[in-house]
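Predict structure. Chain length: 162.
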Amino acid sequence: MSTHREGRLGGAGIVCLGAVLVQAGILVAFLVGSLLLSGAQVTAGGDPAWDAAVPFPVFPVPSWLLTALALIGLAAALVWAVKARPADASALTGVVGPAVAGAFAPGFFMFAFADDGVPLGDYGIALAIGAATVIVLFVAAVVHGARADRTKSADASIGETR
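Prediction complete.
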């Protein structure tokens, strides 16, 4: 009988996942809003494909908001990575994808709101923090995954000697 628990998110994992999903959700809302209301214009340098009901941007996305969400996500990822158990490797791995989507959002806005083709650096800060979150989650998933494999091997060898 195994005493190992299935992967769990825990409080820090839920906060991390929530922060990165909100960033990705802001991007999706912006893109859908731009498609429907501003004639599919998604960048400052672009032109609407049809008559726009609302001029670009449909709604401004402040860089401070994405930076704050990225900081929350990184802090929660660090706490989760430190407190995680080997059984949590699958949960850590499952959050890597949403973290990539969350990190992509400020990268998109960095170019979408560019002034004369020059990317806006404030969004770059959120992008760097989001990339750090992805790295923390990935490393934690690999480390805890390796520990889970060693634990399973040890359990199997103990079962064979009985």
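Summary: The chain has one domain: 10-161.
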